[in-house]
Amino acid sequence: MLKEKLDEILEQIWILKEKGKISLINLEQINEGKVILENLKELRNLKLIETGGEHLTLTETGRKKAEEIIRRHRLAERLLADLFELDTEEYEATSCQFEHILSENVTERICSFLGHPPLCPHGKHIPRGECCHKLSKKIEPLITPLGDLEPGYEGKIHFISTHHHGRLEKLSSLGISPGKIVKLIQARPAFVIKVEETEIALDKSIISEIYVKPQEE
Amino acid sequence: MNIKENKIVLVGNPNVGKSVIFGLLTGKYVTVSNYPGTTVEVTKGYAVLENKKCIIFDSPGINSFIPQSEDEKVTRDILLNQKIDKIIQVADAKNITRTLLIALQLAEIGLPFVLDLNMIDEAREKRINIDEKELSKKLGIPIVSTIATQNQGIAELKETLKNLKRPDYHIKYDSLIEEALLRVEKFLPESQINKRALSLMLLAGDLSLKSWLKENLSQEKLKFLEEVQEDLAEKYIEPLAYIINEQRLKETENLIKSCVKTEKIILKNWVYYLGRISMDRFWGIPILIIVLFLMYKFVGEFAAGAGVNFVENTVFGKYLNPWAIKIVNFLIPIPLIKELFVGEYGIFTMAITYALAIVMPIVTAFFLFFGILEDSGYLPRLAIMANRFCKIMGLNGKAVLPLVLGLGCDTMATITARILETKKEKIIVTLLLALGIPCSAQLGVILAMLAKLSFSATLLWVGIVLAVILLVGYLASKVLPGKGGDFILEIPPLRIPKLSNILIKTLARLEWYLKEAVPLFILGTLLLFVLDKIKMLKVIEKMASPLVVGFLGLPSRASESFIIGFLRRDYGAAGLYALADKGLMNHTQIVVSLVTITLFVPCIAQFFVSIKERGLKTALLISFVTFFLAFLIGGLVNFILHYLGIIL
Asked: Would you put residue B151 in left (φ > 0), alpha (ψ -120 to 50) or beta?
């Protein structure tokens, strides 16, 4: 439990830093005045933070550790929001648990699977991991919503994630289903895609549920 | 003599040419166009094959035997309820996956069938080579290839129909599904459709089967089936219909791997580029404007102007009407009967003249122009351009098809609303068709009158009508419960229309127009004649005077047009045309009267179809709303034009 509490506080400090509001008072405010002195002492002993009066900073090790927590948290949010389409409340709560348990390897897999997303569902930055840096020459995501392709490009459908009744069946009866290669013909005024020799116009809300792996030209 | 007639049904994906083949087999023309959803009803025709009379059915296109819209249900139901002997699957040879998806389901259904790879020329052009022999061997069914529009391969198709066998091809689904199938099959009643296929539809959760099952199964059995279905559904994350379809898709992939070779070439000619830019966000708009402008020029100015002028003034005015008057004068001595034929409200001088001299040239031009649009494949592209516009009214681009078809005939278009998915969309489209979409005849007459005023008057009329449609659609979408459907629409390739099909189509539509409109025109004229003779017409005009003269600011004789407008709006418009022609209305009055008659109640035929499709209550409500709005908006336009002192 203590470890989790410490993780949480590191995370809070990191977010304060992200907002440029890093100070002891602000940290205490977040925790509603509850005593966190014990924890801070512990963190200082672990050489993760430095304090002095009002002053509060993360050490290099602390920053790294905090960043990893944030990264796990925000990647988990992406995963739960995009793939499993959980409600905001639900995915936020679950992500808070995920951040403590995901191993480094699992985190990398998730990151790659999602195509090294730069932002969390709230639009905040997801700290980059090693897997992202390896790909930094070519940050093209592995999997992306079909609607995000440039018109004229093709992608192979990996999954269709929808909770709209009947949509999945409708798409699959048109031959739009995992494994098929689709080409994005145009994006406006409506999306038009091509599967085999069939061209189909559809709404953005539908096309953004079709995830593809971009194909090399 | 064999008493039992063979029943053959044409089945296949949308827009693959079923109706063309139907026409070739039966000699009966059904509308053929280049967009999915042209056929929404089953058409019956007859053919003689192997010296035997056969009944042939043309059916709406489907993508799956689990119906997702009403028109698809029509096709599934015909297989379920009619004693079908043979099936011809018509397919677009270019789209082999979707073709095989249907073929696999037909194989499951188990009725003898032949696969017709139509448009084989287009597939060859795209270097899609299908090993027909191999595929035929694998599926265990005969395969023929045709180019229906050129009548190629039809003889072979007929020949193949002679000895069709029941297909024997089964997909093995995963063990959970197979297990459930075994449990379900035992309980199903005998039907046209193989039990295995029926069980699959059931497991896929086909709600549209419910009513059929209720008729054929006991309560307990039904409950048991539902339990099996729910049990199975729980074991998968995704809907069962999808899971089953995925396994079929896998099967098609295997078949394609061994039977189809595709060289990747992209064929691009000017038609291809025109098709692309006509749905482009920049170029699409000027192209739309050009199309509308050409229509205005051809229908409004040329046909309605020069055409009507010639037929009405020269053919009818100089020759036919004077002759008719002479003949009647010569033959009939009684003045009352004489007047019935050639008087002010005479069957010949009013009904026939309006129908043939004013409306006919205009609808001919319109049908020709519209035929070109339909056959080129422009309409689905228009749907893309108008998608956003439709969203305001709780609809999506798909609704453009029935709405634009309404410009041809609102009655037919009301039936076409079947291609929409949700009840809400169908009601909104039925309402808008009744309210603001003038049919070809009415539109033509209106354009003819407007062309004589000014282009700005035309724009004003278009603007007012569009604004009313948009506003009413918006309000309806807010008031009506439910939600809109998904915008998923197939876009067929742009094709160069074939003159012969356009001519045949136009003739068929003209024939239909004459059959439907002329009797009603005569009925309306009789009504006016009687009302006039018993002096009721003046009374009615007086009664309507506060509304027509006071509120709309029109001459009191315009009431006549509104009376006959109850029968057909185009007839009402023709009445207004005659009034304007005689110089009895000024420009403002013309615009006001046109706005009112455009928004006026749906014609009788449309009213009955609305009842059939949407129910009596909805149809009555729609008529009431349109009647009310027509006069309200007409009065407002009158008031605003006068208030602002705008002279048109």
From this structure: left
Chain A CA closest to residue B395: A203
Note whether A183 and A193 are within 8 A (CB). yes
The tokens 């090993």 sit on which residue? B131
Q: At which residue do the structure tokens 């100070």 appear?
A: A23
CATH class of B6-161: alpha beta
Residue with tokens 């995915």: A91
Chain B: give the shortest CA distance to residue A177, in Å.
8
The amino acid present at B434, given as its one-letter code, is: A
Rounded-to-integer distance, Cα B419 and Cα B403, Å = 12
Domain spans in chain B, listed from the N-terminal domain onward: 6-161, 175-262, 284-644
Confirm or reject contact between B37 and chain A (CB < 8 A). no
Give the H or E element holding residue B229.
helix B219-234
CB B379 within 8 A of CB B404: yes
Residue range B296-345, pLDDT digits in tens: 888 878 887 788 888 888 888 888 888 888 888 888 888 888 888 888 88
What does the alpha-carbon distance between residue B304 and residue B587 come to, in Å, rounded to a whole number? 18
Distance CA B390, CA B217 (A): 43
CB contact under 8 A, B245 and A203: no
Confidence of residue B49 (pLDDT cuts 50, 70, 90): confident
Phi, then psi, of B7 in degrees rounded to 5? -110, 120
Instruction: Quickly list DSSP for B51-72.
Output: TEEEEEEE----S-SS-SSHHH
**What's the CATH class of domain B175-262?**
mainly alpha
DSSP B304-362: IIIIHIIIIIIIIIIIIHHHHHHHHHHH---HHHHHHHHSTT-IIIIIIIIIIIIIHHH
Q: Tell me how far apart the alpha carbons of residues B357 and A53 are, in angstroms, rounded to a whole number.
A: 98
Residues of A in contact with B206 (CB under 8 A): none
**C-beta of residue B68 within 8 angstroms of C-beta of residue A171:** no
What lies within 8 Å, CB to CB, of B629 at 6+ separation is B435, B468, B472, B599
Q: Which residues of A touch B276 (CB under 8 A)?
A: 185-186
The ipTM, to two decimals, is 0.84
